Amino acid sequence: MKKFISTLQDIWKIDELRNKIIITLSLMVVYRLAAHLPLPGIDPTQLSGINDKTSGGLLGLLNAFTGGAFANASVMALGIMPYISASIVVQLMGIAIPYLQKLQKEGESGRKKINQITRWLTIGILIIQAPAYIVSLPSLGIPESAFLLGRGPLFYFSSILLLTTGTVFAMWLGEKITDKGIGNGISLLIMIGIIARFPASFMQEATSRVTQSNGGLLMILIEVIIWLLVILASVLLVTAVRKIQVQYARRTAAGNIKDVAGARQYIPLKLNSSGVMPIIFAQALMFVPGLLANSENNTLKSIGISFTDMFGFWYNVVFAILIIIFSYFYTAITIPTNKMADDLKRGGGFVPGIRPGKDTAEYLDGILSKITLPGSIFLALLAVLPAIITKFGVQPGWALFYGGTSLLIMVGVAIDTLQQINSYLLNRHYDGLMKTGAKRKTTV
What we know:
444 residues, mainly alpha, Preprotein translocase SecY subunit, SecY, protein transport, cell membrane, membrane
């Protein structure tokens, strides 16, 4: 604890890092305050119905990503998710559209153009999602009396405009955090929205255990221990790498005329190279079967109903299979083994025992395929773990923190942010926050 306090003091001593953290926290507070601003014309005291509907299931997951703004009928009800959807679409389009492929190779200027395309696509998605959200409010449990000024054209126009503005504002906040603050702004906004639901979910679970004599404090302690173990497993999944040994025959040392022969390095191939993207892709597809619940055909309707329960058996079986498939798909399109092999060859490096060029690319691709299988299975198990946990009497809201997208986003963003803070500390010769980086303390 003493070392942790000392590290916090070191962080505060670095003016640039301190200012970045203050800016990040300030913008996150602004985002959370905006999430509690209800749409004009809606009585916030009559939203108990929508809160009940979003206590579990797919709507509960959407509500978790927006930090409760979805259930509050807030101006931030759609959160940052339309931007995430647009980013995924642009990324996938980059595989097939030559223009986007060209932009990806143009460096910073190309990245700015791709960001601009993503922003416009976000607005396009909002034009569809915002009206759909407003129209669905009565079916989500909001009574007619909650619409203080009725549901006329003025209400629809103003609400759609505010929902669009809210998401664009959230997108701007995320980009400002990335530019002026610390960490990835968009990811931090999603994480803070998820964490915002944590206290209420935990208190609901604790209350049900104590008041209903359902295990009491001992059961709560067991659940917390299991939760911490799941977090540990998630950290291992995010950080695990397979090191491919690389050797450079001749490399010139900086500031030295001599050549350094036989320098050895390695290529780190992640066990889970695709991160949470397979879960997000699979989650998006799992909304489609649920639409069949409104079908007039009894068979299709029963299938649709079974897929509206995110804690159901068949839902999670299909969900896990899709995650494994998308893990391979996303890894294949994001990890260019051919380019890695070419870059290695141009740099004078080679994998011991493997010929440079095509053979190296095939070798890297084979290793990547082998490690992706256990990584994808582990990812699928974490994704369906909330459904397993609920079978032991855990409340659905609290169960969502035992795995799935929520937990992996929190773990991934936390690790990424800590690594950035750690790099600032190490560059200034302070002990880092992370154990592996605490060996650079020197005297100046």
